[in-house]
Write a structure and sequence with these properties.
heterodimer, A: alpha+beta, Arc Repressor Mutant, subunit A, B: mainly alpha, Histone, subunit A
């Protein structure tokens, strides 16, 4: 029996800390010229440098430095006049070198912040998340654990390593602790990752695909008694690879911590892994014994001393901030605050914008993405943007409704069919023979049939009870298999009954 | 330089997953201590005006362009591996964290 969230926040205050790893969208790796294509055949993108073969020497990818500085600037950071790489030594085969080239005490960007907004039932709330540092490192290889019952590491007989990903430029963005979020901690965590993702996307420095791991979040959570200034022990949850999971992971950890603390037990400082299916975390390893990385400055690489003019050129070229872009869209589309927040919360703003660019009316585009499509996404427990329906499909459907070739009801059928993989809207319409019955003769035949089966209702309508016509309209819609335009049916029916 | 204790050596061995006997630990603690003390003598000649450095040459900002160059073939990449399977490096089971 788990604690209720309300009971957790009545007693404890959560303290958040977020670490986000972003794979940069460079063509080549961080320290060598190997390709960075996702999903390539195993070990086809490796060389002596990223395999750590003896004598190989790394050279820094200039684009990666540029991208990292852009990220720092967009997050209001100071850019360090001097920074260095360090070796993070650890004995684990996901890095063939036995160390990861990272930055330690001399990161390239420090002391920034990011403002986020959440939509709560108390209205829009703003929080400032302070950024401690943005540093450069390289991604690790991918392990495949073979044998054992669960495919997990425990019980595996051996592991297979693919080093295609090893050495891909990775940027780590670390927040300071975020106090004062109270019960909104899970939403703030999610809003922060969403805002960060939007910024990274606007900078065009990463494809920010959480499901492919190019954006990954580790959520640190601790609890303290309300009114106390003593920080609790934190846990670090890894494997959080969707916005929804960020929120679930933080909420889940808050509940787990509170249960331990209420029983008088202590929270162990450890790494935990988020389980997508259950929304719970399970223990990884205990940090106290595992981490002794023996960092030291990387002797094969020279310091980074970015030229001030270069930095200022990048600063001047920063794109419009997503928050400003959103305000501009909101004004152009005349969207109320609440609706805007719904779009952001459902993470469909970008796809609605893409639909509008293809010619759809903003209100209609928003209606479909937030309505029917979001409903189906919810049912399938996926993001609306991950459904196999594109802005082009939706723009096409909006246009067909506008010309009267589809009714809203038929449009819903088309959307369902497109998502079910029956093809693009025009194909679905053709295959299913969907068309609006607008022929007055056919509609009148259906209307007369409805009246003859429900003469009492027809009598009421004749007598002036217009709302009663609904039952007749329903019967006509049923008769025409939903392919009639309800407004047209209503018009013809009322006229026929002298209203 | 205070040298290196037997516990330090044992800890390093643990981090590097090297199994060492008590006799080896004793031996290495004294031997590594001598080596470290020898290297530490460099500090005697470093004056106040010599800043610590991580690189022998006064270089900075050495970059390469973001250009893809051909990688090794998977066969070549795996050729020196003690074991491989399914075009991947095969390693003994790992205890610890899942990647």
């Amino acid at each position: 029996m788990s604690l209720k969230y309300e009971d957790v926040i009545a007693k404890y205050e959560p303290v958040l800390g977020l670490e986000v790893h972003v794979e940069l969208g460079t063509a080549s790796k961080m320290f060598c010229g190997c390709n960075t294509i996702f999903g390539a055949e195993p070990n086809t993108q490796t060389c002596p440098v990223c395999l750590g073969l003896p004598g190989a020497l790394p050279v820094v990818n200039e684009k990666a430095i540029e991208y990292t500085i852009m990220i720092g600037l967009a997050l209001n950071c100071s850019i360090a006049p001097f920074s260095r790489f360090a070796r993070k030594n650890y004995f684990y085969p996901d890095m063939p070198k036995n160390f990861q080239t990272s930055q330690y005490d001399e990161p390239i960007c420090v002391n920034g912040f990011l403002d986020v907004e959440i939509d709560s039932n108390e209205g829009i709330k703003k929080f400032r998340v302070e950024v401690e540092r943005v540093h450069m490192e390289e991604d690790t290889g991918k392990s495949l654990h073979v044998g054992g019952a669960t495919g997990r590491i425990h019980g595996a007989d051996y592991s297979l390593l693919d080093y295609n990903r090893a050495g891909i430029p990775l940027v780590e963005i670390v927040t300071k602790i975020v106090p004062g979020t109270g019960k909104y901690a899970p939403e703030v965590a999610r809003a922060y990752v969403a805002e960060l993702r939007d910024i990274l996307r606007s900078l065009n420095v990463s494809d920010v695909k959480m499901e492919q791991g190019s954006l990954r979040c580790d959520a640190n959570v601790s609890l303290r008694l309300i009114g106390s200034d003593v920080l609790g022990t934190r846990s670090e949850t890894k494997n959080v690879n969707s916005l929804r999971s960020v929120e679930r992971a933080v909420r889940g950890e808050m509940i787990r911590h509170a249960e331990l603390l209420n029983k008088g037990e202590r929270v162990v400082q450890e790494t935990r892994h988020f389980q997508e299916d259950t929304g719970l975390t399970r223990s990884g390893r205990s940090k106290e014994q595992a981490e002794d990385y023996r960092y030291f400055p990387e002797p094969d690489l020279v310091p980074i001393v970015p030229d001030a003019t270069w930095i200022e050129t990048m600063r001047a070229a920063l794109p419009e901030k997503p928050s400003i872009h959103r305000k501009r869209l909101q004004e152009a589309w005349a969207v109320p605050d609440k609706e805007m927040a719904s779009m952001i919360n459902a993470d469909v703003l970008e796809i609605v914008e893409a639909t509008v660019i293809l010619g759809a009316d903003p209100t209609k585009a928003r209606g479909w993405w937030l309505g029917e499509i979001a409903r189906i996404a919810n049912e399938k427990e996926v993001a609306a943007t991950d459904l196999p329906i594109t802005p082009k499909d939706v723009a096409e459907i909006v246009a067909l409704v506008a010309t009267g070739d589809l009714t809203d009801k038929l449009a819903r059928q088309v959307i369902e069919a497109v998502i079910a993989g029956e093809g693009r809207p025009s194909e679905v319409i053709e295959k299913r023979g969907i068309k609006v019955v607008s022929d007055d003769g056919a509609l009148m035949a259906a209307i007369k049939k409805a009246i003859s089966t429900q003469p009492d209702v027809a009598e009421k309508v004749r007598g002036g009870n217009v709302p009663a016509a609904g039952a007749l309209i329903g019967a006509v819609m049923k008769e025409t298999k939903g392919q009639a335009d309800a407004a047209k049916v209503r018009e013809l029916l009322l006229k026929h009954l002298g209203q | 330089m205070a040298g290196i204790s037997r516990d330090d050596v044992a800890n390093l061995a643990r981090l590097a997953r090297i199994d060492m006997t008590p006799a080896e630990l004793d031996h290495l603690a004294s031997e590594l201590g001598v080596i470290l003390n020898a290297v530490a003598r460099v500090q005697e000649v470093a004056g106040q005006n010599v800043p610590p450095t991580s690189h022998p040459l006064p270089l900075q900002n050495v970059y390469r362009k973001d250009e893809v160059v051909p990688s090794l073939t998977p066969e070549a990449a795996l050729s020196a591996a003690p074991a491989s399977e399914a075009q991947r490096f095969k390693v003994p089971k790992i205890l610890g964290e899942e990647a």
